[in-house]
Amino acid sequence: MIGKIVKxxxxxxxISYVLDGKEAKILASEGVxxxxxxxxxxSFYMQSxxxxxxxxxxxxxxxxxSPNDKxxxxxxxxxxxxxxxxxxxxxxxxxxxxxxxxxxxxxxxxIVFNRVDYNGKTISDKNxxxxxxxxxxxxxxxxxxxxxxxxxxVNVQKLKGAEQTKYEIYHAIKGALLKTKNWQHFEDTLKQKxxxxxxxxxxxxxxxxxxxxxxxxxxxxGSDVDRKFxxxxxNAILNDNNHVQEQQRIKVSTEAxxxxxxxxxxxxSGTADIASxxxxxxxxxxxxxxxxxxxxxxxxALKKKKKPKRRKxxxx
Length: 316
Description:
three-stranded antiparallel sheet; single chain; 9 strands; six-stranded antiparallel sheet; alpha+beta
């Protein structure tokens, strides 16, 4: 069981997505007129006017379950889990809609709720992502549900709208981190996937406090895409990549220098051998002065060959 918290401004876009398709099935609702999609949207919109200052009044939480639990996921059980989840998360005294989708291999439903309650007060989102993880774990343990294996097994092609875009961004970031070593290269790599980066700064300073990723009409905080994709964690990964690549560059450079030194010694030795062979071939005998000079050159070459090279770079 995995819950994903999304907050937005448009009930029309969210509800149209949730109710789109023949596989969408309303499991439960409260405080909305279910005549048609337009009536449901208007119901949510009218209540949001009780608190016009709240810009993001749309609460949207997809709840996904493992394919291993598919046989147990009857409509009744899924509705029960969704309502219990909302109760513990403090989503009370407000309109909601629980819709089941059957377009993926894993059972899942969508909870849409009004963050403006019946009294015009705001449903708190304080520490909601931390509470979401805690509640999901609690329900998995309570009902012995299967723990998920992460985002890698999600079929992105079967998703739609914001959920599909979020997974596309996730895979693009993960791929980019494998081959980039600084922020500029990272940004350029994501641009090729039509993903842009938006930074959040601390006050009026140049200190970066957060990061968001945008593709098309959708934008997500880095930590919403994945907990490992906050600005601080991404910065640490890119710094590590840079450090590793710099060490590899130093290693290659050092090995190349060592190979060159060995090659020079071999050339000197080989040159002396060739000269000796040529002299023998033409029966040429070197003079004593030539022999002394040759011996001196040979000794100098041997000294250079034995002298250890000083390595440059990082000392371990």
